[in-house]
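New to this. Help decode the following:
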Amino acid sequence: MAVFALAFFVLCAGMNGAQAAVAWGDKGSDVIRIQQRLRQYGYMDAPADGIFGQATYDAVVWFQRKNGLRADGVVGPATAAALGISLGGADGSMAAGAYNESEIYTLARLVHAEARGEPYVGKVAVAAVVLNRVRSAAFPNTISGVIYQAGAFDCVADGQINLAPDSDALRAARDAMNGWDPTGGCIYYYNPATSTSSWIWSREVRLAIGAHNFAV
């Protein structure tokens, strides 16, 4: 009996650990953090009251549709990652306050050079790719290091990196630094209409935003 009880406890603990979704009817701190991000990104006007009701559901579905996610109104791991939060734990975002203004401006210049004419979410996605590289052991561990890594971005080679960023590029850089990752962790992007690199075409594409494919 004791062995059965222990096995049951372990099974339940595993199930609870695997359950990482917030949906209609839920309440608490996870809901508040979801609502705060939806308000921050302009998807929700209702207050962050910690109750997952109609307004929150509608905002989540809107966010999911705009960001190429399954529009089911449930905040699971993929939607949480795109919002820049961790369910059931501390927010794992890289806050803009952790960077100096020079780094933010450098990231904004990259966004402006690489994503002019793209939808706003596409600009944030480009910034998020840079930050995902900073987190990866396979790339330099600073924003400038990632951007100026040899051959990493065409805009560095052709000088467009030196253009002054517009307000959207600056805002997109800050949104990415505050945790918004529309790509869900991608570390590459490319324009399939213009890219001639056979290597980049071999990467697994997770989603497309505007003219760019985002891949891992």
User: Anything to note?
Assistant: Residues 34 and 162 are 36 Å apart (CA to CA). The mean pLDDT is 84. The chain is about 50% helix and 5% strand. The beta strands are 188-190, 205-209, 212-215.
